[in-house]
């Protein structure tokens, strides 16, 4: 079998980059690429993401969205969360409570935040418990990259993989990434990795991954 076929796409026969890199090697490359993005590009992308959330907001009024507050080079901004809240969406943010699943508390605005682990801004209000994810119809998940089969690469704490198994089967689980972080290569996957149903990018908006889960066993 040729090298090209060996690294061929798992559900088309298109050639893709080989996936011999480890998760940590991928993280190093992706974080370096994020650091190289200019402040102007970052701001434009955050604005585009906030606009997408603003458009989705009316349709989500009265519903619960589990979101996150971007830190450092992560795509997005607090503006998108404000748009959701203004439209009557209940926005929950994660709280790191030990090494288990994430806890959640309501985002009540910029003044209701305090600094938590990893320099994250967390809601200061009462934690709702790890099971709060079950209320969400949309989950916005921080990620460094997602492949076409829905495999997500995060920061390496395993927090979301421990937290997402409780979501409703009908929920949209969308990783928020920059457009080029929706990669054609197959990311390294482990049995605990929870697949994304969708991606949210500044250029493409919210898109469902019709090919989520479509990995042949030899690629798993
Ligand atoms: N904005 C945001 N919130 C989040 C996550 C996230 O990735 N982003 N998480 C996702 O699970 C959970 C918390 N886990 C996190 C783990 C590592 C890092 C982080 O930025 N680590 C640094 C190194 C640590 C440091 O020096 O501060 C890094 O990887 O560069 C952030 C969050 C829940 N909340
Ligand atoms: N469901 C789980 N149960 C127990 N441990 C888990 C689970 N999911 C992940 N882990 C642990 O977390 C570690 C990191 O996982 P992984 O590299 O997939 O993190 P990640 O998805 O990139 O991180 P994050 O979700 O925090 O952004 C794994 O090596 C594993 O030890």
TrEMBL record:
Q: Which InterPro entries match?
A: FTHF_cligase, FTHF_cligase-like_sf, NagB/RpiA_transferase-like
Q: Name one Pfam family in it.
A: 5-FTHF_cyc-lig
The residues forming the signal peptide are none
Q: What is its EC number?
A: 6.3.3.2
* Keyword Magnesium recorded: yes
Location of region: Disordered:
1-23
Q: Give residues annotated as binding substrate.
A: 69, 74
Keyword Signal present in the record's keywords: the answer is no
What SUPFAM superfamilies does the entry give?
NagB/RpiA/CoA transferase-like
The prosthetic group or cofactor this protein requires is: Mg(2+)
What does the record list as GO biological process? folic acid-containing compound biosynthetic process; tetrahydrofolate interconversion
Catalytic activity as recorded in UniProt: (6S)-5-formyl-5,6,7,8-tetrahydrofolate + ATP = (6R)-5,10-methenyltetrahydrofolate + ADP + phosphate
Q: Output the superkingdom of the source species.
A: Bacteria
Q: Which GO terms describe its molecular function?
A: 5-formyltetrahydrofolate cyclo-ligase activity; ATP binding; metal ion binding
Alphabetically sorted, this entry's keywords are:
ATP-binding, Ligase, Magnesium, Metal-binding, Nucleotide-binding
Q: What class of enzyme is it?
A: ligase
> Can you tell me which residues bind ATP?
23-27, 152-160
The record, for NCBIfam families, names: MTHFS_bact
The record's family statement is: Belongs to the 5-formyltetrahydrofolate cyclo-ligase family.
This chain's protein is named 5-formyltetrahydrofolate cyclo-ligase
